[in-house]
Amino acid sequence: MTKSYLSIIGIFLSISLFAQDNVTKSYEYFNEGIIFYKEKYFDTAIRYYTKAIDLNEEYPKAYYYRANCKLKLKEYDSAVKDFKLAIKYDEQFAKAHLYKGYAQMQLKEYDKSLASFEDALDLDPKLTKAHLNKGTVLMKQKKYDSAINSLTKSISLNDQQATAYYNRGICQSRVKKYHEAIRDYGSAIEIKPSITGAYVARAKAYLKVEKFEEAIADLNKLIRKKANNADFYYSRGCAKLAINNYSGANTDFTAALNIKPKHKNALIKKALTSFNMKKYDDAAKEYGTLCDVFPDKALYHVNRGIAYLRLNEYDQAVTSFNHAIDLDNKLPEAYFNRANAFSQLNRNDKACEDMRTAGKLGYDAAFEYIGDFCK
After folding, report:
1. CA angle, 63 as apex, 82 and 60 as ends, to 5°?
2. pLDDT tens for residues 255-281?
3. Which contiguous run of DSSP H or E holds residue 324?
4. What residues make up the domain containing 33?
5. Are 253 and 245 in contact (CB under 8 A)?
6. Rounded to the nearest 10 degrees, what angle do helices 196-208 and 230-242 cross at?
7. How many domains does the chain have?
8. What secondary structure does DSSP assign to 164-175, as a single string?
9. Do the beta carbons of residue 358 and residue 335 sit within 8 Å?
10. 282-320 confidence digits (pLDDT tens)
11. What is the pLDDT of residue 14?
12. Is 232 a domain residue?
């Protein structure tokens, strides 16, 4: 009996020593993984964390750091699995919940990510990034007021987060609180001057509140940084157009179209600018292009027709107004302007008929001319 008992003790001690050796070796592999992680050799770090886990499967930090490597490699599904294992072996691991939520956010599993962020905050209400990421997800879900609340909490914990201010600014813009948005974009820029998106968004907010010079100043900075962006020139052109700087607007819309010839909004504004500058030949061509791009837009045919009227090209004007009326026979501007073209062509019966139709359709200016056109 004594020999048997001693044998059992010996086996038990051997197993215990072996297990202890495994734990020790697991820690060593884990620490090797940390070294490679810090050096950004993520694939190598993963191999060492895996070795650590093979020797000690209940090692939450090894799962956590392996998951973070996978985040860096954008292997989000696999990262979620590892974060779940970290939580399985340590349910109080707040950051594992946080970054599981981040991986789910990248997978666009927004409801799941929100639940993960809530779990993280239940464990640690001062987890700044959980508030930030929660706000970001709510923003993506277009729940802007809730997003603003979460981002505000994040900023209250750390007021040096450019991303938090930027995202809150976007939400403020979405709910049309443009002045608040401008302040948030300014804070983001102050913290991180290289945050290009904040300049773009602030310029658009300035346009909304009709602070055109401020918008132009932001767009000037953006164009100096990135001179081949058509949208920057387009937005600056809109600001210049708003302050009646037609020449400057025309230059910017032209630059936008040189960079991106199919920039529809730039083409629309360019045609309007040409008309305002009394460059009617250019306007007629540009509205002609718009008629080709948007064949169902009757107003572009009307505007081309008006440009032809200014050029005294009355037959072409009539043709344009005919196209507009074919598309929309309830468009009073088309009848009113075609009446003027017919009058210049001495087709007085047609002019009278069109002017009466324009009046019947509610075009008040027509009544001033009916007497002259319908003698």
Report:
1. 120
2. 999 999 999 999 999 999 999 999 999
3. helix 314-327
4. 18-125
5. no
6. 20
7. 2
8. HHHHHHHHHHHT
9. yes
10. 999 999 999 999 999 999 999 999 999 999 999 999 999
11. 44
12. no
Q: Are 151 and 166 in contact (CB under 8 A)?
A: no
- Per cent of the chain over pLDDT 90 is 90
Asked if the structure places residue 178 within a domain, the reply is: no
Residue 62 vs residues 24, 58, 69, 368: alpha-carbon distances, Å: 14, 9, 11, 84
pTM score of the predicted model: 0.80
Asked, for residue 257, whether it belongs to a domain, the answer is no
How is 209-229 classified by DSSP, letter by letter? TT-HHHHHHHHHHHHHH-TT-
In degrees, rounded to 5, the angle at the alpha carbon of residue 79 between the alpha carbons of residues 143 and 125 is: 50
- What's the confidence (pLDDT) of residue 8? 45
The predicted pLDDT at position 4 comes to 52
At which of 105, 125, 145 does a domain end? 125
Quick one: DSSP state of residue 277? T
**Three-class DSSP category at 127:** coil
Is 40 among the domain residues?
yes
227 phi, psi to nearest 5 deg: -80, -5
Calpha distance 38→35 (Å, rounded): 5
Q: Tell me the pLDDT tens digit for each residue of 96-130.
A: 999 999 999 999 999 999 999 999 999 999 999 99
Q: For position 23, which CATH number holds? A: 1.25.40.10
Q: What is the pLDDT of residue 16?
A: 45
Residue tagged 């666009």 (tokens): 108
Query: Any residues with CB less than 8 A from the CB of 363 and at least 6 apart, and which?
Result: 332, 333, 335, 336
Average pLDDT over residues 204-229: 96
Write out the two tokens for 31. Answer: 């620490």
Residue 40: count of CB within 10 angstroms of its CB: 10
Residue 13 has what pLDDT? 39
Please tell me the distance from the alpha carbon of residue 301 to that of residue 293, in angstroms, as a whole number.
Answer: 12
Q: What share of the chain is helix, strand, coil (3-state, %, to 5)?
A: 80, 0, 20
The residue out of 95, 125, 155 marking a domain boundary is 125
